[in-house]
Specification:
Order of helices and strands of chain B: EEEEEEEEEEE
Structural class of chain B: mainly beta
Distance between the termini of chain A: 41 Å
Helix content of chain A: under 10%
Radius of gyration of chain B: 13 Å
Number of helices of chain A: 0
Shape of chain B: globular
Largest sheet of chain A: 6 strands, mixed
Number of strands of chain A: 11
Strand content of chain B: over 45%
Radius of gyration of chain A: 13 Å
Oligomer: heterodimer
Number of strands of chain B: 11
Largest sheet of chain B: 7 strands, mixed
Strand content of chain A: over 45%
Order of helices and strands of chain A: EEEEEEEEEEE
Chain lengths: ~110, ~110
Amino acid sequence: KQEVTQIPAALSVPEGENLVLNCSFTDSAIYNLQWFRQDPGKGLTSLLLIQSSQREQTSGRLNASLDKSSGRSTLYIAASQPGDSATYLCAVDTGANSKLTFGKGITLSVRP
Amino acid sequence: EAGVVQSPRYKIIEKKQPVAFWCNPISGHNTLYWYRQNLGQGPELLIRYENEEAVDDSQLPKDRFSAERLKGVDSTLKIQPAELGDSAVYLCASSSRDSETQYFGPGTRLLVL
């Protein structure tokens, strides 16, 4: 059974800092890995999707990497801003009926 | 383009009462998902539809939960009777044939007293 872990559960950084959010998964036989953002009381917004054959994806100040063999992914946020404060969830698609297995998320707070 | 629409946004009911949630996916999206998200946890898939067919309902507690997507567009998720442990956020998502990206609605926050 696929398990996705995100540690730490919460993170607080000053504005402007570059930061890395980690995600690990137990079964390397994945179809893709996705990073989502969730604001309080809201649904999830897709940030980046990395196919199993890819190493990384970039969108603006966000860069996500994937190391399938070690079961790890990182989300890099450059020059963090208070508006980046949210919960970031990692999800793995095993390809079996496109079922996403989510981590518990990392709640990020960027202090002005 | 309108996103995924869900209603109601909030629902408070007493245990043993029935409750229903409605979802309208993004126009043209053939795949629809219902997830449950408990406090401090990631979402967990309850059921996935391809058009009007439920292709994965292995995680749906079928003794009290039911879902339908009769015309392959909007969908309803029902709980009858509700239990205290059903308190959670119920999220609907949709995706198209040519993309794995799932688009989520704002969710329905259910509180069972």
